[in-house]
Amino acid sequence: MRKNTRALIEIVARHMDLPQPIVEFGSYQVTPGSISDLRPLFAGKQFVGTDIRPGPGVDRVENLEVLAFDDGSVGTAVLLDTLEHVQDPPRAMAEIFRVLKPGGVAAATSVMDLFIHNEPDYWRFTPEAFKYLFRPFSETLVGYQGNPEKPHTVFAVGVREPVVPIEPAFAAIEAAYRRANRNWYWRIAQPYYAARDLVGIVRRNNAMGFEVVHGAPSGQGLERHATRGSKAA
């Protein structure tokens, strides 16, 4: 988990009355006991950690593309740097929308300018992509962080059928996130990414890779992957 995504969910939890149960999709903790553990943010609330594989931080194994949760049974869905590891993000977000209660909240982050990590790593998202993924939600706050032409982070907070006006909370989240990321760490982040890219261009500008991929035998479906170890992003 990255510091800015942790900061975002802290801010969302502070400024919104998040309904229960709170379910984290992609809760596998690569480094147990680190900032990847979101449970302290929701003390006193029902919290369930799910992932495609069992392990630290995982209460139940779930395939994000075919969730076992009943319709309208989840209050808040948290997906921090998870969707890039899902084969079919639109299907996954349709499942999230299905299981959310009226007034339920989905908070998601993902990457655009970031190295391949924690494979399988399938996708990179623009803010427009998140607008598309969250289109079923009644109200959604979509944002990015970094160079507007190539941000390192995109995020969205969507509400299904809000029961109270949500714009004040969205305005408070935006203001708090701007304040939280004015520190020195994030001021130097984008120059770091630019320097990293420049070194990569110099060292590996003409690198190549080839792989022969054999299709599934006739009549057999492809293996599907979903939420997978999103915490090392």
How would you describe this structure to a colleague?
This protein has one domain (3-204): Rossmann fold (3-Layer(aba) Sandwich), CATH 3.40.50.150. By secondary structure, it is of the alpha/beta class. Helix 1 (3-15) runs antiparallel to helix 4. Helix 2 links the parallel strand 4 and strand 5. The chain is built from 6 helices and 7 strands.
Brief write-up:
The protein has 233 residues and is α/β, with parallel strands linked by helices. The protein has one domain (3-204): 3-Layer(aba) Sandwich (Rossmann fold), CATH 3.40.50.
- At the first level of CATH, the class is Alpha Beta
Count of helical regions: 6
Helix content: 25-40%
Largest sheet: 7 strands, mixed
CATH topology: Rossmann fold
Strand order of the largest sheet: 3-2-1-4-5-7-6
Distance between the termini: 5 Å
Q: In the CATH hierarchy, what is the superfamily?
A: Vaccinia Virus protein VP39
Global structural class: alpha/beta
The amount of beta strand, in percent, is 15-25%
Task: Indicate the multimeric state.
Answer: single chain
> Overall pLDDT, averaged?
89
Order of helices and strands: HEEEEHEHEEHHH
Low-confidence stretches are 224-233
